[in-house]
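Annex B. Sample input.
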Amino acid sequence: MAEEFNTEDMLDMYLLENGQLLEKLQETVLEQKDAECFDEDAINEIFRTMHTIKGSSGIMMFDNVTKIAHKLEDIFYYLRESKPDNVPHLELVSHVLDVADFITAEMDKIRDGNDPDGDPTELIDAMDVFLKQIKHEITKVEKELPPENVYVAPNQFYIAPVATSGSRFYQIVITYKSDTQMSNIRAYTAVYALKESAEDIIYFPEDIISNETSSDLILKYGFRMLLQAQLSEDEVRKIIDTSSEIENIDIREVAAEGFFNSDFLKPIELDTAAAPKQEKEEKTEEKQGKDIAPGDYVIQSKEPGKAKQLNKNKQPKASKQSFINVNVEKMDQLMDLIGELVIAEAVVLQNPDLKVPGLELQNFQKAAGQLTKISTDLQDVIMSMRMMPLTTTFQKMNRIVFDASRKLGKDIDLEVVGENTEVDKNIIEHISDPLMHLIRNAVDHGIEMPEERQAAGKPKKGKVTLSAKNEGGKVWITVQDDGFGMDRTKILKKARKNGLLAGKNPESMTDREVYQFITYPGFSTNETVTEFSGRGVGMDVVVKNIQTIGGTLDIDSVPGNGSTMTMKIPLTLAIIDGIVMETAESFFVVETGIVKQFVSVKEDMMIHEPGGEEYVMIRGECYPVIRLNRYLSLSEENTPVEDGMMVLLELEEKMVCLLVDNLIGEQEIVVKPIPKYIKKVRGLSGCTQLGDGSIALILDPASLIG
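Annex B, continued. Sample output.
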């Protein structure tokens, strides 16, 4: 049977749902890492998570994942049943996180098309020792050990009905959302979850694994089960409520007679839509002639009856949100197509054929306005679909702080603020590594050892604050620590040793300029190399990655009070508002958000230095001037400033005037990367296509102003 259901779709669902379970697991564990022990809700949640992963891994025949999940489930089974005292909490937290890391690594192998061949023996042995310790604590206080949590590999789900005085009987209907994919596999997961607790279980459709069309029946009529077990209704609900795709679970307790004689499993409509009565009677006789074997379920058919009467006075249900998982590549393709649509729209609306003198185009202009509105709405919709909260990324940082602080012997708390701030998915992928480096630096460089903090009159526990907020069309992500801050003298000494102060006067440099030295390749103030820092290969990578997406890194520090590092990144990389300019018969674009103003200047406002530098005085302020044609080596001629236009740019409190020949106008720009076969040019970050089909290069403000 394994060959029948080990499909690519099922594998995708396995990876998706178990990935979500592991994320929630780590969040739960890290939230309670500083508590004395896990509370009852957390124990039940971790037990159910491991039980679900064990079951789905057993179905997929990933034995190593099944074994390690079952062993951790064992531990939480004893914690749940016996509630022992004096359980080493931090050791238990480590075991849970180690198991989560192992399963995540195996899932990464599966995702890459490799076999999940990791060896869990060492982790299982360590958990065995821990489990024996728990059992000893249970027996030491004269508590009785609960029965063993025995794992039975998935085979068939027939359990002989042996009713006892404690047995309870339930009719269960699980209704899935209408857009749920592979509902038969989700139903199988519910049956598997109940297997260990059930005395008897019968379900319809019976062939949920071998028959893919059973999904349609489940979506139409719900997945129906008859359950005999010594469980309360709440316990049953907790066991089977494991999927976000479940819309409703209806559980009704019935008498034993109602359970065994029930025709509840097969809905009336199935019989009415089935074959003629004679054919059904033949099939019934055929079934009755067979010997009943384990795994076969005989369900008595119900004669066609009257259709159910609908309650006309019933109020309609409030509309519910429904979700569907979509491959990211399809989202990227849709984004590209919308980008092409924006370009095509510009080509149509800026067509030279429309500029004939005296040509009246009222109807065309109305249609063009409607087209522009639709394309703008399309952009807004696709951008909102691509926007994701930073929650998951920030949660990963919690784990990094926990691991690093334990290895370094420090006691550090991570405070997270604004984790629901939304950013384009592509941006999130680019900032994960830089953020990890900043967090590790704060833990290693920033926070002192506990004894040093106490000597300085600080709390023994250090604090790292990770925050995010929207500010001026950008997202500001800040990593702040309450450590000893940066030593200006020490940084300058290292910079002089590395030859970074050539031609610079250290005395005239601001603190922020000095702190920027730590972002240079090979620069580190740590005298010894540790697992986390000291090689000088972290902060320069951070800056490069941030600049790749058009962001900047701001560094500030107060000696003795800590450091603050702020990433300022765009909300999206796909479509921006830009100013189109012309210089030396070439077109360029600069993002509208950094343009302060446009100024026409005269020669008497210019200041020319002997070294070739130029400045302009505007309303009493002096700004450096960049002639774009000379900066990009398009022309060596000095165009008279009266014939051009100064564009005043402001970024990170720095300002510069860009001298261009002409301003074309403002329009939406679809950002395209510069092809890899073209050598990277300082000052450029991408390209786009204008309405007339010509190519415009997008300027990189960080390179120009920096």
